[in-house]
Fold this sequence. Notes:
By secondary structure, this protein is mainly beta. The chain has one domain: Immunoglobulin-like (Sandwich), CATH 2.60.40. The protein has one helix spanning 2-20, and strands spanning 32-40, 49-51, 55-63, 68-77, 95-99, 107-115, 123-133, 138-148. Strands 2-8-7-4-5 form a five-stranded mixed β-sheet, with no helix packed on it. The chain has a three-stranded antiparallel β-sheet with strand order 1-3-6, with no helix packed on it.
Amino acid sequence: MNKKVILFAMVLGIVSLFTACNDDDDPNAKPEITILELGEGESHGNERTAKIGEELHMEIEVVAEGKIDKIQVRLHPEGEHHKDGEEGEHEEWEIDTIYTKFSGLRNTTFHEHLEIDLDAEPGDYHFDFIVTDMEGNQTDAEAEIEIIEAL
């Protein structure tokens, strides 16, 4: 009887040893996104505004256990936007850009600038930051941005 208890304890110990040594990296974990700064390009601020004809500064921490495949940035109008004196149907200015230069990285600080076109209209915009890893997991972070006239 003693031998059975000792054998059972040894098998249980070996099994727990192998499961305890499992790699902590979960390839199915979704990427993590932390927006650090989002604002005017010149000041590298975090005021969540950008000026027409200038740049939007983005500094965002990304951690992707499954390694980054691509990062997508979208900026589109919220509500109706009209330039002074302009009414009726018109195409709204927006951005939809994909970055692949971070592909293969597990962790990165995404520091990029987007040019705010002269065709952009002042107003509220919705910012989407989407990270897809090489395992197909996807996470997005959102923010509201105000685009204003340059002085």
